[in-house]
Amino acid sequence: MAIALSTLVEEADRFLDAAKIQDYCPNGLQVEGRPQVRRIVSGVTASQALLDAAVEADADVVLVHHGYFWKGEDARVVGMKQRRLKTLLSHDISLLAYHLPLDLHGEVGNNAQLGRQLGFEIEGPLEPGNPRSIVLVGSLPEPLLPSDLAIHVRDVLGREPLLVDGGQPIRRIAWCTGGAQGYIDQAIAAGVDAYLTGEVSEQTVHSARENGISFIAAGHHATERYGVQALGDYLAKRFALEHLFIDCPNPA
Fold first, then answer.
1. Of 229, 238, 235, 237, which is closest to residue 114 (Cα–Cα)?
2. Which of 105, 94, 84 is nearest to 9 (CA)?
3. In this structure, are residues 241 and 39 in contact, taking their beta carbons and an 8 Å threshold?
4. Which of 211, 119, 128, 136 is nearest to 173 (CA)?
5. Which of 93, 96, 220, 226 could pair covalently with 33 via S-S, beta carbons 3.0-4.6 A apart?
6. Over the chain, what is the mean pLDDT?
7. Distance CA 84, CA 125 (A)
């Protein structure tokens, strides 16, 4: 079955409420390809490796979390950007990208999906009154030592995490996928036992150590694989389309 590209984009925009979320990039359709869609290929980032795999898979749409045209980047279509765009345009493939709308969504969002993957009992956003609160808070089914939680994260995500051990069993936890290490101060203020995200900065370690909180950096890519898969599955089921998630490994 095939549907119009415009129908797919309208539904994805509506489902994620993308128009209401201010972001660092345009959300939705970033590159327009053929007007009919039968097959979606999803991935974390619209890298050249993903685009090449999408060409091989005969995709009509590439759906990603990290697309193009970020604020402050060089606007010239040269080098890597030229090669990526040429691949899409020469094969008539559309690029559909959602950044913060995919982080925030309560069902298919990166944070909600990561919490489910790790078995956390999700309570809700760290700031309940803030509609743009991106950090989630919840609890573990049973208390775990920091080292045991790190092992669980490694086993689920397939990547060795960085652990700052706070020295106390973990019951309540806050988390946010990707490059969200700066939210550790909010997590500390909320009184959770641990904060988990994708990346780490030098000062993050000091904040965790000096405030007696455990911290886990589980990888930007590794923590953000699940939202785009869930969105792709939703769209495929909604319109009876084919959907293939392709993971292009990235240790960062």
1. 229
2. 94
3. yes
4. 136
5. 93
6. 97
7. 36
pLDDT class for 21, splitting at 50, 70, 90? very high
pLDDT band for position 132 (cuts 50, 70, 90): confident
CA distances from 242 to 46, 108, 145, 196 (A): 19, 18, 42, 33
Q: What angle do the packed helices 110-118 and 226-239 form, to 10 degrees?
A: 110
Q: Give the whole-angstrom CA distance, residue 103 versus residue 238.
A: 21
CA separation for the pair 184, 204 (Å, rounded): 7
Could you give the angle at which helices 110-118 and 146-157 cross, rounded to 10 degrees?
110
What pLDDT score does 133 carry? 84
- Cα dihedral sign for 223, 226, 232, 238? negative
Nearest C-alpha neighbor of 220 from the set 197, 195, 248, 198? 198
Query: What is the C-alpha to C-alpha distance for residues 22 and 31, in angstroms, rounded to an integer?
Result: 20
Question: Can you tell me the distance from the alpha carbon of 126 to that of 249, in angstroms, rounded to the nearest whole number?
Answer: 30
